[in-house]
Here is the input.
Amino acid sequence: MTLGVVLALALGTYGIRFAGPQLRNRITVPTRVQMLLSMAATALLLALVAVNAFVPAGKFGGWALIAGVFVGGVAAWRKVPFVLVVVLAAGTTAALRLFGVA
Here is the structure.
């Protein structure tokens, strides 16, 4: 059963990746739809970050984790290089936990 699901997902992924270049010049997506898809992807990513920041492993992650995610978000918004965003977020969380913020 699992192997069948993996193979089906692999074939679906291959089909989507193959169809992209084939349909590039045949289908035009309106500008408004492109904008909405971009906003939807951003909203989905933010929702994923929020869920993992507030309730990792099904329980509250603590204020230090939320502060770290906030610092990382601000750094990313300010277009800081990604490695530095990760270091700032992790460093903020670690420092707050070191000082006893749960």
User: Anything to note?
Assistant: The helical segments are 2-23, 31-54, 63-77, 82-98. Residues 31-54 form the longest helix (24 residues).
